[in-house]
Design brief:
six-stranded mixed beta sheet; F-box domain-containing protein; 19 helices; alpha/beta; Leucine-rich repeat, LRR (right-handed beta-alpha superhelix); about 15% strand; 3 domains; F-box_dom
Amino acid sequence: MSKKRPGVAASNTDLPCELCRNTIQPTPIHCPQSLHSYTMAELLRLPNELLAIIFEGLDAQGFSALRLTSKHAKLATLPAFISRYFHTRYIMLSRLSLENLVEIARHPDFGPAVRTLELCTDHFVEFPDSSSHIARHEGDILLAIQEGRCRPAVLVDSIDDAYSSGEEEDQSLGDEGRETNEGSLSSQGSYEAPLDKAAYTSLWEEQEHIIMSGLAQAYITQALIFLPNIEAVVISNMHRPWGALAHGRQTGLPPTNALDIYEEVPFLGQVLRITLTAIATSGAALSSLAITAGLLSRAGVLYREAIVPDIFRPSESHLQYYKNLPPSLTELTLNISADATTGAEDRWADDLSAFIGVFRQLTQLDLVIKPVDFGPQVNRLKQLAPKLQLPNLQCLGLYRAYCSVQDLGVFIARHKATLQSVTLVRVGVSGGIGHWRSLFAQIRDHLPKLELSIKQCTAGGLALLCRGEHENGEEFEDCFDVGGSHEAWTTAIESIETR
């Protein structure tokens, strides 16, 4: 039986695949050669299967232009349009965005196409400051680079929505609904209008109202009920949500997706509680939940920080209600920081284990534990391993963590009855190569069938390498797989070294 192993994003090897989901697309073909051989009428008479291949090669601008040529072109491209823009829906906690989601969920064609719902952290703040406003979406930036477009500016929300959240259309009327300029492909510039404080304040007040009144939760619950094929929910700030562009044009300042230690962190906690409560209430048969939102660095906004575990800590009433989460939810991805909120240092492992413990049915857990930026590193796995017990865990992914092999061994031993595979990416282990060899020996003697994937890990600051036979002779690699049998582990013990 094949086992699902946590993947690693092609563009960033220190993140599991869930963190970069939907950011990498096939290289676009701006003008497929096959189009030159046909008039438009002849092209649209081709079999749907061939049309799908051609349309897949078009970038967003070419695809949109093709759909505008005629009603027949629009109808012929409908399957490709649905596949391109509705597999994943990006939303924010605004009435405009949430109402659009409900309409899509009720649509006979669009609703069944949605597989992933991504709640973006874009939001309005009480006191906006246009001079330091952040609206940066790495997922959209990756697409812009890959498609050969100019990278979006960091301080303004300038990238075309067609690349991030689908064409911003009202898909509630007719076969496809009314088209608007929300997804205008010419929108590559930044906002030129000054901040309309009244309009911005109005949207902030509306945001607070739908959160505090329960309307946001009701919208998402209703959408999940009507999405028959929904599989995954993501909380992230990688992409720009549907509606953000319209709000930015309305106010002169786009919603921010920055999450700092002030009012935005409680906002993230609200998003989390609203999402989990909506999932539990709807009974949607989800299989995956990924919470990958992070904090933007204030010094240059060049990388994302992770969030601290006390944000995850549920209240007792929420904890009881989360027992209604669907048993189908078996995969969890968390992006967390090894740092802790002032005053919550001693609760780091308790807060995290209490949250993970809500998902007792988990078979796959991916943990990204970002090391602290300043001061000595903290071995959080030492605190977490004795507290966490997942009775059905089969696949573990651990990313960027700093720990000891003893603590890794404790975690693996506590789940040896069910654990089948472990992926370690950029894990730093204190001590030398002997520590890794002792871990391999422990696994060989007690769990030889376990499969271990190692990518760019270290021992005492040195790269962990494995010797392998290649056409040009022996080579050492920092990404390798080991395990499956007693003999394989013995060979690996003899083949690894540090440099």
